[in-house]
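Sample 1 of the test manifest.
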Amino acid sequence: MTDPVLSVRDLRVRFRSGGRETQVVHGVDFDIRGGETLALVGESGSGKSVTSFALMRLLPEAPRCRISGSVRIGGVELLELSERRMAAIRGPRIAMIFQEPLTSLNPVHRVGDQIAEAIRFHRRMSRSAIRARVIELLSMVGIPDPARRMHAYPGEMSGGMRQRVVIAMALALEPDLLIADEPTTALDVTVQAQILELLKDIQRRTNMAMLFITHDFGVVAEIADRVMVMYAGRIVEGGELAEVLSSPRMPYTRGLLGSVPRFEDAGLRSGPLGTIEGFVPSPDALPQGCAFHPRCPHARPGLCDVDLPDLTAVDGTGHRVRCLRASEPLATENTEVPA
Amino acid sequence: MIRFLLHRTLQGIVLILIVSMIGFAVINLAPGGPLSQYALTPGISQADLERIAHQMGLDRPLPIQYLDWLSKLIVGDWGSSYRDQSPVLSVIWRHMWATLLLMGCATVISVVLGTLIGVLGALRRYSLFDYVATVGAMIALSIPTFWFGLIAIFFFSLELGWLPAGNMYTVGDQSLGDYAIHLIMPSAVLALVNVAIWSRYMRASTLDVMDQDYVRTARAKGLPRWRIISAHIVRNALIPMITLAGLQLPTIIGGALVTETVFTWPGLGRLFIDSLGYNDYPVIMGLLMFSAILTVVGNFLADVGVALADPRIRLG
Ligand SMILES: Nc1ncnc2c1ncn2[C@@H]1O[C@H](COP(=O)(O)OP(=O)(O)OP(=O)(O)O)[C@@H](O)[C@H]1O
Ligand SMILES: [Mg+2]
């Protein structure tokens, strides 16, 4: 097996404001290999974006925010790099597509210039070569008439078109790792499908690794090789796509799967139907024990509200779960895969 | 865009007309009125006053007087000063360039320094520099300009003897260096408050832009820090400042008033004070109209500037 492109160990993120410290990410570990897509799933506020910003070191600086642990890309420890050397990593090694297509582009610069800028500061290329590359990228992401559209301002484009520009920008230097933070949430379903297809296609050609953040299991089923479920800043379940979708062990994962109506279309069986009651706890008021226990239908008093479970392997496939009752019959009986 | 500018021009004309009516009414209805200077002449009789009033057309109904005055205004006949009978426009013109020189210097200082301090303060928020700049701005804004001017004169002119205490030039010298040395103190005093104002606005605007998603995008592209600051932060943070600069244009008269008085600078502010003292109504009205026109022109230029700098406005 090849070495992973990205290797994250015990990643922790703490924010500080007004003298109070809040930990938002509590020790996250994962690897992604070239050509592989890892989906990071979880409800709003579970810490997906913060985790991905931490990988690129895009969070506020030291006193306001502290990141610890290890983030290695191609053997280089990112958390120890100077800001200057980190800037050289951003773009050619890791690139990112952001959650908000409408505000991610600078409204006062032409979109073509904003893409060119992503190339210009990393590669010695002539103006005309950069221009040709910009046109190539724009047509690759499906923008019609790119030689003309490159002169448009973001305000003259629809949300879908702007998201394509952001994608073109992220792909400009053919990064080793692409982080896509809910790249399609703001878009309508047809555009969404086109963009997923586009990302898969590019991945096939460049062997790019991808961290795909979403809370839509339908999208996960279409794009991911492996899945990681996050809750309150911790990974609560992870494993191969088919494994996690067909036999989710963590009640939270099952709850998430149950709240995806489109899931049946993906040809995979969902867990018991139903939405999860209650809300993601605030990072500065996490419950004792398993963070999910107040909302969990299977929580057992005296057990789940006392100890924080570890992320433990449940079988030989790399399927791991953070649940004290994962191996008990009650917790698994509902999700037996039909013969 | 063209329609928008036409619209603004029309609005501007209406504004100028309204200002002219109010100004005309206030001055003509004020106790004393345009005749008050003659009334003080010793030995003048009521009959004399009435004759003068008739000569000047002051016995006609006010709206007629207004229309008469306005139509002359439009063709460039702004009346003549009661003081020396020279045409109002040329009186304003004569004083304007002194003010322009002073304001120009002060504005360049305030924009450059204010932008620099504001941007640095925002980039290093809550640092010692930011703290000193904040307190400094508060102090600068709370010191009355005349007090600061007098203190400056006391130290640099009377005690140290480095700089002239007032006036625009030394009679008989009038070299470039002579103008420059006379400019230093008044423009520094005038700039002090403007640096404070400009740096506060610039700091707020920069902080606002720094939080925008597109700045994060720029960082994610791996751009060098200087490029992020210049092309994505300062570039965008300056847009609201254009409007502020446009609003500053009419303060050319009022803004320099105190400074010009303290440093006996022969500009529009001084002209205004002197004209008030002489009840020189044509000049006062002229300055009022000039100020209204500058307001409109300033706003118009700001609109054009913002439109040029911000495609959202230009194309929206
Ligand atoms: N700069 C910050 N300072 C303090 N807390 C923050 C900051 N940014 C995010 N948080 C907190 O971190 C938690 C996780 O936020 P995050 O944006 O990572 O959620 P998410 O999983 O991406 O959700 P969504 O699906 O809505 O995008 C939230 O509780 C949020 O309030
Ligand atoms: Mg998010």
